[in-house]
Specification:
By secondary structure, the chain is an alpha/beta fold. Helices cover 32% and strands 16% of the residues. The strands form 2 sheets. Strands 6-5-4-7-8 form a 5-stranded parallel sheet, sandwiched between helices. A 3-stranded parallel sheet has the order 1-2-3. The longest helix has 13 residues, at 47-59. The chain is elongated, with a radius of gyration of 21 Å.
Length: 225
């Protein structure tokens, strides 16, 4: 926010949002916006986000009173989902077990892991069906991914397995219906700040199998949800 208006600023991962150039005039400028009287509140969406902000403060070229002022503005407000009335339209625990993965950053979100799970399930003749909703974005500028395209070839071949159902894209209401019909949601991510598909799943009563990343451990409890 660069005008004269007062503001509340929310963030998911890091604030100020820049990488590199620490102790630069740019960093000083951005912190100056947050220190100004115009900035009334800084709202992280998780304790993970809060801790990232505090860690950055500790490493920034700031005075102790400035750090104290910024900590005083800091608050947490978790994202929320509309919880539908319970309609008992969840999955039937007979026959196929449906597991659903949602994530356009396919490799970062753990899609290769999901396809390997599908391969093992098929080899062992387990009645698991893996629904994958993803544009299959891999490599390139995605910071967690191997840059070699050939790395993904043996995994992407597994999309043709008979127990894999791939949707390149689906409207969000259709994704929500798919999650509601699923027995489990999968988010085997290698790097995430929050993971919205997890709360979308839980809003539909679908438990989540995930990795211990970002804010996920804050609202996913082993053996509970």
């Amino acid at each position: 926010p660069l005008n004269a208006k007062r503001f509340v600023i929310g963030y998911e991962s890091h604030l100020p949002r820049f990488f590199g150039n620490h102790s630069s005039s740019y960093e000083t400028f951005l912190y100056g916006q947050l220190l100004s009287r115009r900035c009334k509140k800084i709202v992280g969406i998780s304790r993970y986000a809060q801790n990232n902000f505090i860690e950055a403060l500790d490493n920034a070229d700031l005075k102790d009173e400035e750090r104290s002022l910024l900590r005083g503005k800091l608050d947490i407000r978790y994202p929320n989902m509309d919880i539908p009335e319970w309609n008992n339209h969840g999955p039937v625990w007979e026959g196929e077990i449906n597991l659903t993965f949602v994530g356009n950053h396919f490799s970062r979100k753990g899609g290769c892991t999901v396809l390997r799970m599908a391969e093992l399930a098929f080899e062992q003749k387990l009645p698991y069906v893996f629904n994958i909703v993803s544009a299959l974005q891999c490599g390139g500028s995605i910071w967690t991914d191997p840059s070699r395209e050939e790395f993904y070839t043996p995994y992407l071949r597994l999309l043709s397995l008979p127990n894999v159902r791939h949707h390149k894209t689906l409207p969000n209401p259709e994704v929500m219906k798919l999650l509601e019909r699923s027995h489990f949601s999968l988010l085997t991510t290698f790097a995430d700040t929050f993971g919205y598909s997890a709360i979308e799943s839980m809003a539909k009563g679908t438990p989540v199998i995930c990795t211990n990343q970002g804010a996920l451990p804050e609202f996913i409890s082993d053996g509970v949800n």
